[in-house]
User: Fold this.
Amino acid sequence: MALTAMDIFKLLPRTNCRDCGQATCLAFAMQIAQKRAKLEDCPHVSEEAMAALGAAAAPPIVLVTIGTGDKKIEVGNETQMFRHDEKFHHPCGVAVRVSDTLDEAALAAKIETVNSLTFVRVGLDIAVDLIAIDNESGDAARFATAAKAAADTCRCAIILMSGSPEAMKAAAEPIKDHRPLLYAATTENVEAMAAVAKELGCPLAVAGDGLEAVAALTEKAKAAGVEQMMIDPGLPDIKTGLHNLTMTRRAALKKQFRPLGYPPIAVVEADDPTDELLLATTYLLKYAGIVVIRGDRPAEILPLLTARMNIYTDPQKPIQVEPKLYAVGEPDENAPVMFTTNFSLTYYSVEGEVEASRVPSYILAVDTEGTSVLTAYSGDKLTEKTVKDALDRSGVEGKVKHRKLIIPGYVAVLSGKIEEATGWEVLVGPKEASFIPKFLQQVWSQQ
Ligand code: SF4
Assistant:
């Protein structure tokens, strides 16, 4: 269980020397209890107290690092059961599983496919993070060759999948500087697999049939000196899988049960691509740190990455674009000028339709703190004043010779006030972005 401020206070020197920046040791203890200060900020704390406090102050779910440099991915260190209670911190990694039975050319093509799985959504880059090399061949040399190819040519972090400690060592040792995740230690091989992970300094995944089995495995691996672990508590069907993943999170956060305080990894097994996607999305939402799938088509990957983007967005901070004037195409002095809000989803919906219209235009993104048109209007963040301020700051007056402003159809009610405040003639545009091309081609062209 987490220590209270008073528990922490009893372990401090209690000299009130202020070297930590706090007025008293008790104030410092309260800061620690609220996770606003670090123990290291007190230079006088004893080693004994450091050990006791350090263990208690450790995050309930370990932060696990896989890969290095540009390929590094961190998972775990989550603190909430539900995103709306605060936010989720480290997005679930998405891994594509690749068999080591592929010949050299097929393997290279597969790695290239994985490399290509990057997308831009609402102005942000989203991509597959990991490649999981599966020792399906059972051959250590073949496994090592595939692992080396992935290390040399894949932009992603690496998971090595094998039940053989010997094959695992053969594949992991030459690429240990890439810090691959070793999957998996099981009841049968945990001592040997933990020894490989410890020797090579790699994170280790343990896989067991249920929570008790996994907890026993993490204890054994930890006793062998492995700190960075992920857990696979078994996903025999969606109901059991969801239950197991939920209970690991609950045990770690609510009970501070350290043997399950590691991010889960979900290796999805399904013959049908749609089933695989549904399972992977379910586990991604609750509460996998990594999901591993075989599907590598954009149609399978993009929905998964989109779900991840949605669940790992901070609910307090909507995704926003910079509030400013954007040029779509090469607009001239006769180009239409329209505004929308700086909520990314709204802005990019409008921008996409303007692009599709092939009418070069200016879009003014009004700062509404990342809210959509109607939300901003009802919250008084989209008013004639905010529109006027945005127009004035944008410099659009010097770019076009007309004074006509297209406004979103949902705020037609603001027409008169905007005309009065800005001096621009208002044209009420469509309510839905999908009607923008028709509006620009048929209505604007008549202006
Ligand atoms: S530095 Fe340590 S001993 Fe000094 S006031 Fe802070 S907590 Fe107390």
Q: What stands out?
A: The first strand starts at residue 63 and ends at 66. The chain has a mean pLDDT of 94.
